[in-house]
Amino acid sequence: MAAPSGAASCEDFAEFQELLRVMRTIDDRIVHELNTTIPTASFVGKVDPGVTCKELYESLMDAHTSRERIIKNCISQTSAVVKTLKEEREKADEDAALLKQLRKEQTKLKLMQSELNVEEVVNDRSWKVLS
């Protein structure tokens, strides 16, 4: 199962979450993937389980690496936006719209940071099933 390609949009948190949901499909279906990867006794001569397990392992590693890279990239981008908005807020004392935008970006940043914790749990669960 290949991960979707392309750059993640960090602007819209819902889109960011949807991308991660799609990319986590391999982890969500790990038991199914194992069941279809490891051949039954009747197919053991036709399929090399070592090769198919290695391919599954590599797919899982690629998926985990890609998701972590996307999450950290979005955290970095959003952190930069928050920093810029904080600097602008210091210059403009009572700009309600700016304050509202800052709070929105700070909330988005916290949610993205929490995705790193979710990612760790998802990864651990997959590796426990695989080992």
Automatic annotation (TrEMBL):
Residues 75-105 form a coiled coil. One of its GO terms (cellular component) is mitochondrial intermembrane space. Keywords: Coiled coil. It comes from the Eukaryota. The keyword Coiled coil applies. Belongs to the MIX23 family. This is Protein MIX23. It comes from Leiothrix lutea.
